[in-house]
Amino acid sequence: MTVKLDQIPFLRIVIAFAAGTITELYYPSHHLFLYGPAVLLLFLILWNSQKNKASYSRRWVYGALLALFMFTTGYAVILLRTPSENKLYAGNLTGEAKDTLVVSITSIPQEKEKTYKATGEIIGIIKNGKQQKTIGEALFYFHKDSASEKIQYGNVLLIYSQLKAIEAPTNPDEFNYKGFLQTRGINYYCHVSPNNYSLLSTTGSNKLLCFANNNRKKLTQLLQQKIGGTEADIASAILLGYRDELSQSDTQNFIDSGVVHVICVAGLHVGILFLLLNYIIVFPSKFRYSKAMSMIVILLLLWLYAIFTGLAIPVLRATVMFSFLTVGRFYDKHNHPLNTLAISAFLILLFSPFSIADTGFQLSYLAVSGIIILYEPLLSLFTPKHILLSKIWEIVCVSVSAQVAVLPLSLQYFHQFPNYFIISNLLVVPLLALVIYTGILFFITSPVPIISTAVSWILKKCLFLIHMIVYEISHLPYSTLKGISISSLEAILLFLVLSLITGFFFLRKNQYLIAGLCVLALFIGIRATEKTIHLNQQMLAVYDVPGKSAITFISGEHCVMPFTTVDSSDIAWHIQYNWWKLGLKNNYPIKRDTNAIMLSGRIMIQNQFIQFDNYKIVLIRQNSDVPLLENKIVLHSIIISNGYNLDMQNLQNVFNVETIIFDSSVPDYKLKNWEAECEQLHLHCYSVKTQGAYIEKC
Asked: What is the C-alpha to C-alpha distance for residues 663 and 671, in angstroms, rounded to an integer?
């Protein structure tokens, strides 16, 4: 589809508004731009009052003022919506002791190994026997028992416990769970003991949300009863957006096969429903208000589906998006879909500005934009004569359009690329449509046993096929290209390259090709520089893996982990992203004492002593690792693990050392005593558990 700037005026507005929200979210400047909207609005009014406002040569002034107005408005909106900026924010009113909190549960409790996890809005704090109104959400972990099992969405609880601040990641490039929650207005968590809470009310103030989420829970239970097993878990994810029961391995299979969007209820699912509704909701053309009635019925059914899926944020986002596309389609044939899409994005950001940081929001709008722009030009490249080939080609064009649009962000966020995404989408998307249609029919016919049994059998077979296809494709050789790490700048450059090359491909304008090749050269230059840095890097890293020792020697694109106690899941959660950023290709874990020369002769290991180039280290894992010598050994570092039980004086008698490092296996009581000893003995120490990963270039 050819896009002209004058067809999408709202796109420029939403870009400026989004830029303002991003500035405040990631680069806060407190109240720097808070009064900007009022000042710029005054300038806009004054400009419009001028007689020469329509002058062609000066129209850029109005555009610049409008862009600045939207930028500062976005900044102000997200600042004003930040809970911690409000004087009623619960985090500002609680102390280091326990408090009595009035909490409304705002999510379906998620079952963990030992607890039930739920998000709760703190609507009040009891002070001196009186309830003080508060705002703000927190994570609550309830000890698993028969009472906590009954907690539901919308319950209002009286909780006696202490709010604790969510901690930032302690390893470089580790997933920032604190930042992830902050963009959702959550800064605290709370562990709730069995006898420290009571039920005040079964329903909160928002009756619609309570109805929606409790209804989703009932439908999830219905799927478990009628279908059961992994198929029921996949059905809950596809039809209701409830993925808590889906195993980590199954989720990873969907990611590796390139169809993770199938289990994320969002644009694709609402789009499939939208196509069905447009096909079946048709009023006679002779009827005067046929188009208007069709639009109203489609909108009602779309929002009814959103309610039955629990009004989850991705579903709301997709429903708003398709609602605007529906209205635009029926009432303004000349309105470009991208402009309609921009209006829906603006309204979502206006009422929920933190959505700008949501990965789903970014990927959804990019994917739909890619389909709007690229689908028709791709489709016109080839015109199959057979209807089956035509449908296959349509799915290929949709998949490629969406994948090209989201490629830079998906590489940055997920660090991998599904090589067989076209094949998996060809096989899974038609089945997905069948699952959605059959699933809706299953819910409608559930009170009728004979019909629901037949429908549930068809639904289960379709889900089984999806599960089998995803598993087989994800386990094919070279199914995914993993370990990709690109920065935000590189993602932007890659996005520019794809946009410019695509523009040249369809518009045949040489300037697009030249600009695209220039940006590509810059991108390649940055990657080549990073590659050179990776090949020459030499460093010691002691990562923070709770309760474990994670000592790593990095040389070039390889690393050695001597006497490590971490497993693959520890590496995946705490370390892997940093290794990908450093360009590491191989890891050599050593589980027991050894004498070895590794990393092309750069590292020598002799029991507890290690020399890495000229950097000398001793690992103290037990008391016997401290040798009995008359002369002190000169070292750069001592790394101490949990098995050592003596004091610091014993080490000072044997070693002359620059830094003593306590790894994460050291318990708190030992750490506290040893840190106090180091201070008395004037020894420089570093605690990985409290200070984060220790990184030193060697």
From this structure: 10
